[in-house]
Amino acid sequence: MKLHHILCAAASLVLGLAGSAAAQPAPPIKVGVIIPLSGGAGPQGKNVTQAIQVMAAMINEGGGVLGRQIELLTRDDESTPAVGVSRANDLIGQGVSVIIEGWNSPVALAMQPVISRAGILDITMFASADAILSGEGNPLPIRLNAANAQGGAAIAQVIASTLKAKRVAFLTENDAYGNGTQASIEAELKRLNYVYERVAEEKFPFSQADFRVALTNVRAAEPDVTVTINANEGLGMPSIIRQFKQGRVPGQLLAALGTVAPSVISVAGEAANGVMGVDIYFPDVEPFVSNPVNHSFVARSQAMFKQTPDKFMAVGATALQLWAMAANELKTLDREAIAKRIRGGNFRNTIFGDVSFAATGQLQSRTHLFKVQDGKIVVQK
């Protein structure tokens, strides 16, 4: 073979290899998710995971993030701080670009410094302890669920303005979430100069399911309202609802923000009728029902998993949606740049509509009062 032919053949081979390399798709962007997938909060955690999968599918079909597909890596924190830290280290080792986490406040607080030291963006979904946004564990915190202070203020308004209750009992989860929420409720009642009497206060661990002794004490106090603060939506909250009804406790049962979802009502059964609470998202009432992005998310959730999203699912999906929007807008995966875009920023066309974040990283959301009627959540106008 002549030298000219050899060179031409070599050039063709190089160009062919280059073309083949160029045709290879870009590697996916790894997104970590840490949430309970077992234990009392396991059912809700699995639903949230499915909602994030729905959003990932929608984003991927729209071109992905920076032209790359999203790959979700989901881990079970077992509602235990030490396990959450272990799962965070696992995902860090897998090279994730962002970690979306936070069902229980103690677990989220334990994971924050680990994720921060690794230089990975940390977005908290639900953990509502005020310390989440303190900057101590994470200097660039972001949270979507309402803070203890927000939820506490909303419940206080129901006590003072809607129920006008004077005798108040508390069933409070004995951790950063529960104690912080109760403190926020009472602080807001004080700010309102509302005169009331705390006639009972019962504390319990996250894993507790038998509240009969505590509710016997509450019943003896004859409250006008019993405020229950329980993040264990898979086990603890349905148990309180059933045992409250069975124990014939007088007065209104009022659930802390975000602790009564359709899944809770399904487990609690008819005992859930009459329970009141507040929350930040409902798929089928305004301003959500007329939001085309929410409409697409709900329809896709029903198509993929045959279920209508609740607040937990909407929050999880929106966490991924906002991260993707910021990354595509800035054309970077840089943790600090994306965090600064979200914190104090505004976003249009999300599942929650047009949203804004405080400079602290807290999503600014509106709360809605609801009552369970005939097994369904009915927003009170």
Summarize the structure.
This protein has helices spanning 3-23, 42-61, 81-94, 105-117, 148-163, 176-191, 212-221, 236-246, 262-268, 292-305, 311-330, 335-342, and strands at residues 29-35, 70-76, 98-101, 121-124, 167-173, 197-204, 225-229, 252-255, 276-279, 346-350, 353-356, 368-373, 376-379. With 381 residues, the protein is of the alpha/beta class.
Overall residue-averaged pLDDT value = 92
Query: What is the terminal separation in angstroms?
Result: 87 Å
CATH architecture field of the largest domain: 3-Layer(aba) Sandwich
| Biggest β-sheet description | 7 strands, mixed
Report on the architecture of this protein.
The N and C termini lie far apart (87 Å). The protein is an alpha/beta fold and 381 residues long. Strand 3 (98-101), helix 4 (105-117) and strand 4 form a beta-alpha-beta unit. It is globular. It is built from twelve helices and 13 strands. The protein has two domains: 29-146 and 286-356, Response regulator (Rossmann fold, 3-Layer(aba) Sandwich); 148-279, Response regulator (Rossmann fold, 3-Layer(aba) Sandwich), CATH 3.40.50. It has helices at 3-23, 42-61, 81-94, 105-117, 148-163, 176-191, 212-221, 236-246, 262-268, 292-305, 311-330, 335-342, and strands at residues 29-35, 70-76, 98-101, 121-124, 167-173, 197-204, 225-229, 252-255, 276-279, 346-350, 353-356, 368-373, 376-379. It is 45% helix and 18% strand. The chain has a seven-stranded mixed beta sheet with strand order 6-5-7-8-9-12-13, sandwiched between helices.
